[in-house]
Amino acid sequence: MIILVLNCGSSSIKYQVLDMSSEQHYLLLAKGLVERIGMKTAVITHRVSGKDKLEIELPVSDHTEGIRKVLDLLTLAGTGVLASLDDIQAVGHRVAHGGEFFRASTRIDEQAEKNIEACCALAPLHNPANLMGIRAIKTLLPSMPQVAVFDTSFHQTMPDYAYMYAIPYDYYTKYQVRRYGFHGTSHKFVAQKGCAMLGLDYKQARVITCHLGNGGSITAINNGKSVDTSMGLTPVEGMIMGTRCGDIDAGVVTFLQEKEGLDAAGINTVLNKKSGFVGVSGVSSDMRDIEAAAQAGNERAALTLEMFRYRVLKYIGAYTAAMQGVDLIIFTGGIGENDPHLRAYVGAHLAYLGVDFNPAANEGVRGKDVELTHPGSKVKMAAITTDEELVIATDTMNLIKK
Known about the structure:
Layout: E1 2-8, E2 13-20, E3 26-35, E4 42-48, E5 54-58, H1 63-75, E6 88-95, E7 106-107, H2 110-118, H3 127-140, E8 146-150, H4 160-163, H5 170-175, H6 184-198, E9 206-212, E10 216-222, E11 225-229, H7 250-260, H8 264-273, H9 276-281, H10 287-295, H11 299-322, E12 328-332, H12 333-338, H13 340-348, H14 359-362, E13 370-371, E14 380-383, H15 388-401
Helix pairs in contact: 1-3, 10-11
């Protein structure tokens, strides 16, 4: 089954085409990225598996036109991997927020589309863009089956005492203000993959997954279910991130609004776009730049590193307590998979839990699936590569087959 996977941002479209024989057997045929949609010149980066990437600059006015260009590339001689668009049997979409409507991935019909739109208030930067992709496919390929895979659905198993905020209950009943969590497809994928690799029963294990990148979250998974996660109503809560502040005293928000004369949009910009790594370090939102600056003696960069690593430890400790123990700790995402210094720091601080960290196994590991503890370690650690597009394609295949 050939599946087109789309991840639409406000001015971008990530895409992959996968030929799915089963969950374990598949081929990545092509992937790419359309950037700067709506600007004077957009850039399309297109790569067919086994061939050099192709970069094209041309105007792309909106997501419908962007997806039309992608479909053209997929069927053209030289750049294509499909004989015709009829080869595509379904389209799977990444959708950021499913609210309380969606506990699992779903076929997209009129009601599902309305519910996704209703969640735009909860994810105003993400869901409208995701809807653009869904509606573009409806325009370009009207009879094509579509599936939505939600960042939030995996976390719908959290108990109410974990997802509720201690604010007037009316705000939950009127506006659904609660913790939802994100990166759910990644957390579920790496937990299952890590347990299989290390011989643990996913349905019987206590797993803490650390998805750490420019955006980051940590999740507690008990017996195959998410029971707590660091992101909240929005992706700004929890870990310190590239430009997002993470956990903060709510009083800081009103204090800064008063002192700086900021309205809601202004403080939102501060917390989401000017904080985190870039706000503390003054160097960059990229952890690689911050590590280089810290090694060169930049004290604020070194502080940023220490704050980030400390918060990882805090969440691991908290979730270990919540689950009355932990069997496996996983690092994934751009930082988690590629930063041996972070993993070494965390591993060295968790000996009290029964983590017998293996520095030799960790040394230089980037973008690989590796156990990071010695054989016989009471608590195991691992670096596990994530593949959210594969999760979307797998869920799409299974729903279409049903």
